[in-house]
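Protocol step 4 of 6: record predicted structures for both targets in the notebook before any analysis. Target 1:
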Amino acid sequence: MRISVAALPAALAYSGDEGIAKWEGYVVSSEAAFRAFLTGPVADRARDTEFGESFENELRGLATTGMGTRHLADFLASVGNEKGWEIGEAFAESVLAQDGNREVFWPWNHVRDRRTPAASLPGADLVGFCRDTQGYGLLFGEVKTSSDARVPPQVMYGRSGMTWQLETNATNLAVHHSLLRWLRIRCGTPALVAAYREAVGRYINSSGKDLLLVGVLLRDTDSNEMDVASRARHLGRRLASPTRVEIQAWYIPVAISDLLMVLGAGA
């Protein structure tokens, strides 16, 4: 079996489910296709190209002197390179949003909220909506990248690991409060407000349980179901319906340590 996320063909290496949890592993065998996806949709998301181009064009229109033009050139060149975790998040957002089997979308790009070049925002890595048979629902997610030879990798464990973070996203009302306030302010069109109201209505009327929790693990190792299966089962036993848990592992043909270089080569 194969899936195709836009221009990123991937083979399903394994899948399973237990209770409310399911897990899948995908192998991307074509390095050329992966590089194209990374320097295309992923780079656009990581650099917020949609907003960035209009922002830069507006600033260029304000530079009316030679001094202003020179300063603007220095200003626009001052932005640092993306961080590894930013690429991982952008990859996860891209593959989920372009999955032809369902509708997932992100009302806002987290990149716009970083007030310093190295800032990492608190809360879930992924905050958006997923449409199912009942309409729009909330999606909270966590993203990890790892070259760890251990199975499962260390990023799945501990208070900074995916499993603990997903469980916190499912059960901590203070986290929910912060995420829903953050999300509402960023729903700036009538269509987004309608999706928000529908999703949050489901959340409130289910006592805070109607959530889709998604974990995305990016690996440059051989595929192994135990990377995610035991952790997904753990969450499936800890949480209850209508909460749903999906953990995906993506096995890529480029070393994690080279992702920044590949992205930079496509600039």
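Target 2:
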Amino acid sequence: MAISANLERLNYDSADGCIATGQHIEVIQSQGATRTLLPEESGALCVFDRAAGIVFTLPAPVEGMQFDFVVKTSITSNAAKIITNAATVFLTGAVMIGSLTVAESGDVFAGDGTTHVAVSMDGATKGGLKGGRLRFTALSATSWYVEGIAVGAGTLADPFATS
């Protein structure tokens, strides 16, 4: 993908680099049970801060878009879910889930890139407890790459889902 000529370049011609002062990212707090993210919100930090869960729907992917998600409040019902905008947009990458119980180990779960369209954390075995962080990066018009660490409890299970 070519970089748009409409983007502002900071010190593009300088071999010394540049300084971008006052840089902040947008933080999206919960605003109910569902939230559809907008393309112009790429780069935002989305917060799961509702015990009853939130479903974030990603926008149509454009290569290079990125969204971060953190679990601020443990999920106690429903799910902390991130889903693609269409049944033909898939997830690849991996999520490591660590258990809060010392006697239990962690595990790694991977998106298959062909059927998985969501990460759904249940507040227990599939993650969704306070402290998790996931990043979604658009690789193409049909693919998001997922990476991160989730916090769960019990016998850990795959958070990647087909719906």
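Step 5 preliminary note on target 2. The two ends are 29 Å apart (CA to CA). Residues 93 and 146 are 5 Å apart (CA to CA).
Proceed to step 6 after PI sign-off.
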